[in-house]
Amino acid sequence: MTEFTVIGSPDDRRVAGFADACRGEGLPPPSVVPWASLLDGTVTTSIPPGLLRIESPGGDPDTDALLRGPGEPTRVSGGARWYAAFTSALDRLRAAVGPGTTWLSDPGDIAVMFDKRRCHARLLAAGVPVPAALGPVTGYASLRAAMAAADCGRVFVKPAHGSSGSGVVALAAHGSRVRAVTSAVRDSSGGYVNSLRAAVYEREDEVAALVDALAPDGLHVERWIPKAGVEGRTFDLRVVVIGGTPTHAVVRASQLPITNLQMGGQRGSLDAVRDKLSAARWAQALDVCAQAAACFPGSLMVGVDLLVDAGLRQFFVGEVNAFGDLLPRLTGLPGGLAEGLDTYTAQVRAAIAREAAPCGT
Amino acid sequence: MTVREHLDRYDGLRVIDFGGGDQPEPGERVAWRVGIDRDSWRRQRNPVRFGHAFGQFLDAVDPAAVTHLVIGAWDTDDFVISTPVLRLLQHTAPRLPNLKALFLGDIISEESEISWLRHGDITPLLQAYPGLERLDVRGGSGPGLSPISSTELKVLRFESGGLSASVVRAVGASDLPNLQTLELWLGEREYGGDTTVADLAPVLSGERLPALTRLGLMDSEIQDEICTAVAIAPVVARLSELALSMGALTDDGAEALLSGQPLTHLVELDLRHHFMTEPMVARLRESLAPVTMLLIDDAQEELDEEEYGIRLFIEVAE
C-alpha cells in the first residue's frame, strides 16, 4: 500500500488535517518528519519510500526560531534569514531522499513561490496576467521614485518572503499625502509585529519608517489592482488547484484592501461572486488559476490568489502559495473533481490516482 | 449604499460599462457607465484618458437616447480634480438632450479613498442640464455649489466622508420645488465635514422642499445632535422615509428621537450602523413597530480603541 511521508511540524493542524484525510481514505497515517530535524541537521534516517508531501513549517515557535533566529514570533522582520534557512533545508531534504520517493511538490517550485519577485517573474514570462511590478525597491525613497517613474500612485508593497499577509502594505501616495494600510504595527521595542487588526498610517514619516524597516528583507512591489466588491466588501479569491485542475475556491472578503483571512478577511459568498461574473468569465477566472498552477508543474497542489478587477472583467494572479490549502471545512467546487471533498482528501485521492496511473503520466 | 462595489444598478436601471463588452438587450433602458480603467495592466503604457473615452462613447451610442449616465474614474491619478470632466459634460449638454440622471464619481475605495476624490464646481453643470431629475455626487469635502433652481430635480444625493457646510447651505438656499429625495453624507470634520445643525436648519424646516418624501442625514460624527434636531423638525411630518444611518448614533440620539414628534407615520426609518445599547434598540423596535421598514442592526459597531481613547467611527470617512 502506498504510504505518505509528510515534512511538517508534528503538532500543526495542517499535519493533523492531512492525517485525517489519509485515515478517511483507509490509508495508514503518514510518517511525519519534523521540519525542526531538517533545520537543525539531526535528521538521521533517510526518508521512507512512497509519496512525499512537504507541508508548511507552520506556526511552531521552535521551528520558527530555527528558521528566523530567536525573537518574538509575531515580528515582521527576518524574512531573508527565514528564506535562506528554508531553502537550505529543502536542499538537505533533496539529498536525504532516495529513488523510491515520489515528490508531491518540487522543492524548486516551493523556493520560487516563497520569493514573490521570482514567482512574479515566472508567471509574467508564461503570459499569466499579473499586476505590473515596480522596482527593484530598496527603501521608501526608492519606492517613491519607482512609483513616480511608473506614474503609479497606488501600490502593494510585499515582503519578498512573507506569507499570510505579514508585512504587506497597501499604499496610496500623492506628494506628501499618503495612506498605508498594513498588518505591521510598532511594538514597544520599536520593531514591527503583525497585528490581527490592520493599522492605517497617514503620516509620511510613519510610512517611510515602515517601508525602510521592511526593505532589508527584500521587497516585491506591484501596482494596486482595484479589486471588485461583493456584498459591501472588497474581495479576492483563493483557488486551490490540484493536479492542474481548480478544485476549491474561497471568497476572501474584507472592509480592507488586504483580504487575508488572518487579518480580518472573512469567507464571502461564492454564489454571490459567481452571480456577478457571467458563466464565461467564471470559467475564464478558473482558467487563469490553472495557467498559474501550470507554472509549477512539479507541485500537485498550489493555492492561487486571484484578483478580480473592480470592473469584473480582468483577472490577475496576486500570488501563488505552495501551502495554500489550509481551508478547513471547505469542500470542492460543485460539479468538479473534488465536489464534497476537503482540500486534503482531494490531494490524497489525486496523489494515489497519479501513482496508480501508467508510468510517464 | 456601498463604496466598495461599482454600481450594478442605478436609478433602477442596469449599469453597463461602456467598452466592457456588454450591450443592452433590445429595448432595454440602461444606465451607461463611462470611466477610465485606471490601473489596467494591459493599458498601463497608454492610459485612455477620460475625454477620449467619453468621445468614443458619444460616437458609439445614440446620445439622444442616453437618459442615465454614471461617471467612473476620470484620471489615473487619485488626486486630480474633476473640473475638466465637469466642463466636458457641461459642453456636451446639447448632445445629451434627454439626460435625466447623472452619477458623478462611481469610484470605490479600492480605486481611491473617497476623501481623495475632488470635485470642482457643479453649479454650471446643473445649469447646463435643466432637465436633470437626479444627481448623485461621490467625493471629498467639495464640490463647489451655489444655490440652484430647478423644477425638474427630484433626487439629490451627496456621498462624502466629510461634506463641506457650504454644500449643505447651498442646498438649503436652493429652489427645488419638486425634490423628493435628499441624501447628505455629512462625514467627519477631519475630512472637511464642518456642517453644524444650524447649517441644516433650512432643510429641516422643509419650507423650500415641499415635495420631499425621503431625507437622509447620514454618516455623521454628530449624528446624535442631528437626531435631536430631526426630532422637532417640521419637515419630518411629510416624509415617508428617513435615514439617520452610518453615523455615530448612540442612545442619546435615540432618546431624542423617542421623546420627539411621532415617527410612526414613516414607511422606512434607517438607523443602521450605530452605537446604541441593546435595551435602547429594543425600546426603538417596540415604540416604532408601526414603521414597516425599521432598519436597525441588532448589534452596535465595535468600538475603535485609539490612542486617545474610544472613538465612535462613522461608516464612510477617509
Low-confidence stretches of chain A: none
Outline of chain A = globular
Shape of chain B: globular
β-strand number of chain B: 14
Largest sheet of chain B: 12 strands, mixed
Low-confidence stretches of chain B: 41-46
CATH topology of chain B: Leucine-rich repeat, LRR (right-handed beta-alpha superhelix)
Assembly type of the chains comes to heterodimer
Name of the CATH class of the largest domain in chain A: Alpha Beta
The helix content of chain A, as a percent range, equals: 25-40%
Instruction: Supply the CATH superfamily name of the largest domain in chain A.
Output: ATP-grasp fold, B domain
- What is the mean pLDDT of chain B? 91
Give the neighbour order of strands across the main sheet of chain A: 5-10-6-7-8-9
Short description:
The complex is a heterodimer of chains A (361) and B (318). By secondary structure, chain A is an alpha+beta fold.
Q: What order do the helices and strands come in, and which of them pair?
A:
The complex is a heterodimer of chains A (361) and B (318).
Chain A: E1 4-8, H1 13-24, E2 31-34, H2 35-39, E3 50-54, H3 61-68, H4 79-96, E4 101-103, H5 107-113, H6 116-125, E5 133-134, H7 140-149, E6 154-159, E7 169-174, E8 177-186, E9 192-201, H8 204-214, E10 219-223, E11 229-230, E12 233-242, E13 245-254, E14 266-268, H9 270-276, H10 279-294, E15 301-308, E16 315-321, H11 343-356
Parallel strand pairs in A: 1-2, 1-3, 3-4
Antiparallel strand pairs in A: 5-10, 6-7, 6-10, 7-8, 8-9, 11-12, 12-13, 12-15, 13-14, 15-16
Chain B: E1 9-10, E2 13-17, E3 30-34, H1 50-60, E4 68-71, H2 83-92, E5 101-104, H3 123-128, E6 134-138, E7 155-159, H4 165-172, E8 181-187, H5 201-205, E9 214-220, H6 223-230, E10 241-243, H7 251-259, E11 268-270, H8 278-287, E12 293-295, E13 304-306, E14 309-311
Parallel strand pairs in B: 2-3, 3-4, 4-5, 5-6, 6-7, 7-8, 8-9, 9-10, 10-11, 11-12
Antiparallel strand pairs in B: 1-2, 13-14
Helix pairs in contact in B: 6-7
